[in-house]
Design brief:
Blueprint: H1 16-22, H2 24-27, E1 32-34, E2 46-48, E3 50-51, E4 53-62, E5 68-69, H3 70-73, H4 80-89, H5 112-120, H6 125-132, H7 145-151, E6 154-162, E7 172-173, E8 176-185, H8 191-206, E9 210-218, E10 221-222, H9 230-241, E11 246-248, H10 257-264, E12 268-270, H11 289-307
Helix pairs in contact: 1-10, 9-11
């Protein structure tokens, strides 16, 4: 049994590939288990077979060489904040469809096993909205809840800055604006291909006024639902949590799983131990003692179940 702790996962694991290539013999294994993420919101355990990929970029618009007075020059000086808003509006329509040319070209169709698995995942949209304090969801039209999260890509604005954002007001025309974007990718989409398509889109719609910086590029991954290691892990989770897991073909989140597949041929199953209200990436991120204990039991059961497999 081998442990690999990636302390850079939240910033895209920039040194992990180099480490894997240098230490292949040290890391090689039959299968991988990743103890990350939360169990299903109903409290049922999960077994996750894939992850969405991610392209993280920063888009910058700079027009004048400094901020200018909105009274003296308003009406003739271009506004970088408005330019950014207009530019981002060309990327996604009101139905959540991404408008970048060729964005959806390579998406893999769902297998029959994946379609069946989606039907079995509990969905309670009203309870989810109540928990999040929402009146409605903002899904891609015509696409069910979990299919949106697992098998549809996204274009998401993480944050926008531009002009004066302090207390009170300052009547200026901003000379620059910045948008931080993450694009979640689904199986068969290549982040380098999508990045080039994004560059072409930005160049066409901003007429050269926008600069795009690549921050992170991570490929999506997917393990077949009938993988031979799946059933032993399902039995282990069932022993650890005292109920069978919900099978999740692809989770919405991202990790550098593809590096292990491409460099070592290792397929890694994601076995979440976090409680549904763990508040990941937010204040008071937490782990319940109950999930902690059940996670320990599950790992022990996994060791026994996997050790019993005859090659």
């Amino acid at each position: 049994m081998k442990f690999l702790i990636d302390g850079e996962e939240e910033i895209g694991s920039p040194h992990l590939e180099e480490f894997i290539r240098k230490h292949k013999q040290l890391i090689e294994a039959d299968v991988g288990l990743v103890a990350d993420a939360a169990i299903h919101f109903t409290g049922q355990p999960c077994l996750i077979f894939g992850r969405r990929g991610m392209l993280k970029v920063e888009i910058g618009v700079r027009l004048a060489n400094r901020d200018l007075h909105s009274g003296l020059f308003g009406g003739v000086v271009p506004n970088a904040a408005w330019k950014m808003v207009q530019l981002l509006n060309t990327c996604v329509d009101k139905h959540k469809r991404v408008l970048i040319d060729g964005f959806y070209d390579d998406i893999a169709p769902l297998s029959s096993l994946e379609q069946e698995a989606l039907k079995k995942i509990p969905v309670h949209e009203d309870a989810i909205m109540a928990n999040w304090g929402l009146q409605t969801l903002d899904k891609e039209q015509g696409v069910p809840f979990y299919e949106n999260i697992m098998f549809r890509p996204t274009f998401n604005i993480n944050g926008l800055t531009g002009g004066y954002t302090g207390s009170g007001s300052q009547p200026i025309i901003p000379c620059c604006a910045t948008a931080k974007i993450d694009i979640r990718l689904v199986p068969n989409q290549n982040p380098n291909d999508i990045y080039q398509k994004l560059l072409d889109h930005m160049k066409h719609h901003s007429f050269g006024a926008a600069e795009v910086e690549l921050i992170t590029a991570i490929k999506p991954t997917k393990i077949p639902l009938d993988h031979p290691y799946a059933q032993p892990i399902i039995r282990a989770i069932t022993k650890g949590f005292e109920e069978p897991p919900v099978l999740i073909p692809v989770c919405g989140g991202t990790d550098p799983d593809y590096l292990f597949m491409e460099n070592l041929g290792i397929q890694r199953f994601l076995v979440p131990f976090g409680n549904p209200d763990e508040n990941s990436h937010a204040p008071n991120e937490n782990l319940s003692i109950d999930c902690f204990i059940k996670g320990i039991r599950t790992i022990v059961a996994c060791l026994y179940e996997l050790a019993a497999i005859k090659k």
